[in-house]
Amino acid sequence: MTEPIIKLEDVNVTFQQKNQTLPAVQHVNLDINQGDIYGIVGYSGAGKSTLSRTINLLQNPTSGKVTVNGRVFFDQKVTIKAKELRQERQKIGMIFQHFNLLNEQTVIQNVAFALKHSKLKEKEITAKAKELLDLVGLGEYANSYAAQLSGGQQQRVAIARALANDPKILISDESTSALDPQNTNQILDLLKDLNKRLNLTVILITHEIDAVKRIANKVAVMDHGQIIEKGSLIDVFIHPKQELTQKLIGFNDGPLKAIGLLTKSGERTQDETFVKLTYTGGEVNEPIVVKLYKDFSVAANIIYSNVDFLGDQLIGTLFISLQGDDANIRSSIAYLNSHNVTVEEIQQGKKQNESEAEAV
Ligand SMILES: Nc1ncnc2c1ncn2[C@@H]1O[C@H](COP(=O)(O)OP(=O)(O)OP(=O)(O)O)[C@@H](O)[C@H]1O
């Protein structure tokens, strides 16, 4: 297995504020692989920016270990010389909510500015800046002034500037937070495109879960300086374990409440088995309800169904009640499991009580 491009081991950052000690980042362990789009999501103050700044030592950890591109930057103390750190930082581009462009300079001058200290000659710098502007779809705006561009276009210039030194990693710290939904999606799609074309590793710091949903393949949820949940986007979205994760992703507990109420009111009989089915796109190509009835004599009533997208992956969710002979119900669940449908049985007692408690 290849080494992660970024490895954070038990990273802590503590700030002293007056007489108080503030643990901004606590015991963070994170492996980010080359080519990942890693979403780091959480509410304001969770420690996301501070954590991302430890990657290039813009913020020194209080303790822990930071390894980037195979170089140990920090191991309980800074372990890299200042000059080498400057070189290594060039491999890590950053973009922010505010574009920080030089408004009185042209777009191409803004990008060329990042190459000022490179070994390239002036002509080469101009050619490279033009190439970068083409890459972000702004070639025709090269000679416009930064201030004349829309927010989305200005963020594109900032992206071109961040890519000037051919970084392997791009840290996007709330880069779409100041943009309207259309520009947000265009910038996110550009990041995804750059990730594919350049094999660029992207760290997407955001409080907007939809941004993560649109382009990330991995996600970490931060709360009070800690990573409380992390993993592949699909796993975390389908099986969110922490309450905060459920809240962030807008986990719909309506179906559980409905099942609780149905059983409580006696509308449904005790011999029903309630299940939640989850499947990813293309995997369910037989009509489940018909199949269960025809082959297993199990009647399936749909309580709730939904389809959602994670990137371009379709995720289907179905809450159904199964009625029939117990052995047949078991066989039908086994059938579903063997057809790439995740089946979760809803323990009426437990989930019902939980959902009732929430409903009060
Ligand atoms: N340089 C600093 N000195 C003291 N406290 C700081 C410093 N930087 C951040 N903090 C504090 O650390 C905590 C985490 O801040 P951080 O900016 O990392 O959170 P965040 O999740 O990125 O939120 P936001 O999106 O609002 O910036 C906050 O309580 C913040 O006030």
TrEMBL record:
What GO biological process terms are annotated to this protein in UniProt? amino acid transport
Q: Do you know which CDD domains this protein is assigned to?
A: ABC_MetN_methionine_transporter
| Record key words, sorted | Amino-acid transport, ATP-binding, Cell membrane, Membrane, Nucleotide-binding, Translocase, Transport
Output the Gene3D superfamilies linked to this UniProt entry.
3.30.70.260, P-loop containing nucleotide triphosphate hydrolases
Q: Which InterPro entries match?
A: AAA+_ATPase, ABC_transporter-like_ATP-bd, ABC_transporter-like_CS, ACT-like_dom_sf, MetN_ABC, MetN_ABC_transporter-like, NIL_domain, P-loop_NTPase
Keyword hit for Transport: yes
**Could you confirm whether the keyword Electron transport appears in this record?**
no
Query: What are the ABC transporter domain coordinates in residue numbering?
Result: 6-249
Q: Which PROSITE patterns does this chain map to?
A: ABC_TRANSPORTER_1, ABC_TRANSPORTER_2
What are this entry's molecular-function GO terms? ATP binding; ATP hydrolysis activity
Note the PANTHER family from the entry.
Answer: AMINO ACID IMPORT ATP-BINDING PROTEIN (PTHR43166), METHIONINE IMPORT ATP-BINDING PROTEIN METN (PTHR43166:SF30)
What name does this protein carry?
Answer: ABC transporter, ATP-binding protein
Q: Which organism is it from?
A: Secundilactobacillus kimchicus JCM 15530
